Amino acid sequence: MKTFVALFAVARELVGTETIEVELPEVATVADLRVALATTTPALAEVARRAAIAVDTEYASDTTVIKQDSKLAIIPPVSGG
Amino acid sequence: MIQLTHNAIDSDQLVEAARNPQAGAVVLFLGTTREFTAGRQTTALEYEAYQAMARRELARLEAAARERWSLVYCAIVHRLGHVPLTETSVAIVVSAAHRSEAFAAGSWLIDSLKESVPIWKREQWADGSSAWIHPQPEVVPGGTSSPREVKPATPVRQVPASIQRSDHLKQ
Q1: In A11-75, where do the E strands start and end?
Q2: pTM for the complete prediction?
Q3: Which residue in B116, B144, B169 is closest to A10 by CB distance?
Q4: A79, B132: Cβ pair inside 8 Å?
Q5: Is the Cβ–Cβ distance between B77 and A81 less than 8 Å?
Q6: ipTM for this model
Q7: Cβ separation of A80 and B120 shorter than 8 Å?
């Protein structure tokens, strides 16, 4: 399935776009997304391995299931305040 | 009350809103742009947020603080975009019957915000360079970071200034 991943801060700058398209298996988890990101977008390999992933605006674990309409985002270590 | 804004934060207005006959204490915290970090000169900070998620996380923090302490008023406002030296990037205002609750809630809210709310700052250095600030996350098996696992009672993790400026993710 075709999914879209929102990028912020250093992740956005590494790729140069605010969103990237990632092809995932029909049944996929966050762990699959990390692998797909590293494979299809080498610039994001290090970030994809270390950063948190949000699914539908919640911090997700590697076992969180991704659906076609899930809102996905890479969340590099935060530095607000 | 939570808010993300690209405008200057009016902390006086927030403090006035926190006044209440039931409150004997109003605590205001302001995060402001500092000129020097570990000897390096900053001219401004730029903030970016994943706004939908940041609002949700901020609302969660307010709800958690209200559950833990008896607060009369609670406001968290974060500015986005360009924040020059001395100006306010974040304001937290709480009021409570007594000062111990107000201080504790205010302190916990800013510590928690820094741990989990998806907002990022970019340092604009005086030498013309700039860099996103990405504190080193604790390495957790499986690659999942730990913000949502931080419990209210957890002491704040101290990140040495030497690694706050880490740009290890850059190539």
Answers
A1: 19-23, 28-29, 52-55, 58-59, 65-66, 72-75
A2: 0.85
A3: B169
A4: yes
A5: no
A6: 0.95
A7: yes
